[in-house]
Amino acid sequence: MGERYDADHAAAWDHYMEAERKDLENRRNGLLRRLLDGPLPGESSEELEALASEDEVRAEHGLVELFSPEGEVYYKHIDTLSPEDRSDRVAAEGARVEWITERTRTRDFS
Fold this sequence. Notes:
single chain; mainly alpha; 65% helix
């Protein structure tokens, strides 16, 4: 496994972190607000505004969401992420995608 393996993993980690930093920039610039696309029936626009604003503030502070195997949401600064955090990070991103997808489906059928 040696040096080539280590170099490949280092390159993969650099690529992963580059993607995370781009996502953080998108969040800072209102990605969640755009994805939410306004309230669904029964939702308050104030609640959605608070969610979007909180996401932008977290992104401004460099915080990324993670989802533990126990189902707990927690946040870490992007500069403290390690390869061991990837599964929790992927779980958080998957949960967000699922939630946004379900909102879109609901909006399409409303």
